[in-house]
Amino acid sequence: MTAVDVVVMAAGKGTRMKSRTAKVLHRLGGRPLIQHVMDTAQALQARRTIVITGHGAEEVEAWLRASAAAAGRPSPDFVRQEPQLGTGHAVQQVVPVLPDDGIALILNGDVPLIRPETLRALLERCGGQRLALLTVEMADPAGYGRIVRQGEAVRAIVEHKDASEAQRAIREVYTGFMAVPAKKLKAWLARLTNDNAQGEYYLTDIVKFAVADGCEVVTSPASEQVEVDGVNSPLQLADLERAFQRRQARALMEQGVRLADPARFDLRGRLACGQDVEIDVNCVFEGEVTLGDNVRIGPNCVIANASIGPGVVIQACTHIDGEKQGVQVGEGARIGPFARLRPGAQLGAEVHIGNFVEVKNSTLARGAKANHLAYLGDATVGERVNYGAGSITANYDGVNKHHTVIEADVRVGSNCVLVAPVTVAKGGTIGAGSVISKDTPPDALTVARAKQVSLTGWQRPKKQPK
Ligand code: UD1
Ligand code: CA
């Protein structure tokens, strides 16, 4: 097997995006366009990957270096193309760093949905010998390079602007992807000229050199249009986003996940699901999310970087984001509606978190409940604790965060403030409205609020007549 060296073209400007961000860094499914292409290249086990940058080069290179480092992979190589004189000129910049003995696989940084299987088929067609072009039949081929054949044999690619009327009628077009023996590619690149309608160096002109040299030129079809569609505008980006989400939704449903409506489902990361998982409409999943068997997710939830145990029910409009620390929800827990779980929330089995309850960096043991309007931050909460409506841990003194311990079977009444660091010992009860700033003993009722007084014979003030 001949080694494969991937070349990713990513120097173009993307004028129609009308954005300050480099085009290939715009996100699809939560990842930059070019990251999709890099991940696909990774799946092909290429020997090296060389990225051609130009517009926004520093930004693009910085992103790709950081992302490779985060994944524990070597950084791709970069070559700069400045100014941008066409696709042929772009690939000419790669010549000094491209080994002679491999197949060069040319990809586009702004075509994110290309599939590894399609590229494998293209590489197979090349076979280390031939010039292999990925092609597609288009109902409206305007703007694309046409595949000009004589009989079966490919003779040339003619760019739309250079094509005759007869050539413009051809619906078989070049997609921008090719696989070519590197040594031959280099020889052909050296012969490119820019005497054409756009005054550019066209990569596609190498086809006629291949034909002249007696090198076989072959084609390989893309399996569907979206996998070769590029992103040039916000509209095209949104169209591809939907196509990508449909692809992901379909894969999940094939595994048995029941999506109430695959058109109202968004996954911007990875979602691993057990059996009999149900997801209602308008949910967004980000980062790494795991859902155990029999999990049910209500409508309008956002769930990021979290591991949700079996049988958990997450009700409508719940927001969960574990960020780097993660969130864990134990078996059979009930969360929401309108709950918020933040990084480091670790909920045991059968925990209940109700509406307008926020949990951050806290461990709740089996069966603990906080059902209404509460905050638990930097706390350790024991089994069966009942945490009353409106209660909060005052975990921050303005400089440092402090820890609160609430031991098993404690009942915290409504509207309490637990001023950390503080421990409420097991079985204790905290009276409603208490501000607790000292540790409390086990099994006692602790009340820390002004005593109630009633004054008899007291008169309401009266309005004086004028
Ligand atoms: C190119 C092909 C055309 C094909 C079409 C498919 C050529 C001459 N034409 O057309 O046959 O049908 O793609 O989409 O190759 N780029 C650079 N440097 C440059 C110019 C472009 O890096 O100087 C990059 C762009 O960022 C992009 C890719 O090359 O990723 C393709 O460029 P684009 O301008 O879209 O090519 P087209 O002229 O549309
Ligand atoms: Ca294009």
Uncertain segments are none
What is the radius of gyration? 31 Å
- Find the structural class using helix and strand composition: alpha/beta
Mean pLDDT over all positions:
97
Instruction: Provide the helix percentage.
Output: 10-25%
Count of helical segments?
8
How many beta-strand runs? 36
Largest sheet: 22 strands, parallel
Description of the molecule:
With 466 residues, the protein is α/β, with parallel strands linked by helices. Strand 4, helix 2 (57-70) and strand 5 (77-80) form a beta-alpha-beta unit. The longest helix has 21 residues, at 234-254. Uridine-diphosphate-N-acetylglucosamine binds at residues 9-12, 52, 54, 81, 84-87, 89-90, 108-110, 144-145, 157, 159, 173-176, 202-204, 230.
Write the topology of this structure.
Elements: E1 4-10, E2 27-28, E3 31-32, H1 33-43, E4 48-53, H2 57-70, E5 77-80, H3 87-92, E6 103-108, H4 116-126, E7 131-137, E8 146-150, E9 153-158, H5 165-168, E10 172-181, H6 182-189, H7 206-212, E11 217-221, H8 234-254, E12 258-259, E13 265-273, E14 278-279, E15 283-291, E16 296-297, E17 302-308, E18 313-314, E19 319-321, E20 327-329, E21 334-335, E22 340-341, E23 346-347, E24 352-360, E25 363-364, E26 369-377, E27 379-381, E28 386-387, E29 392-394, E30 404-406, E31 411-412, E32 417-419, E33 422-424, E34 429-430, E35 435-436, E36 445-446
Parallel strand pairs: 1-4, 1-6, 4-5, 7-11, 12-14, 13-15, 14-16, 15-17, 16-18, 17-19, 17-20, 18-21, 19-22, 20-23, 21-24, 22-24, 23-25, 24-26, 25-27, 26-28, 27-30, 28-31, 29-32, 30-33, 31-34, 32-35, 34-36
Antiparallel strand pairs: 2-3, 6-10, 7-10, 8-9
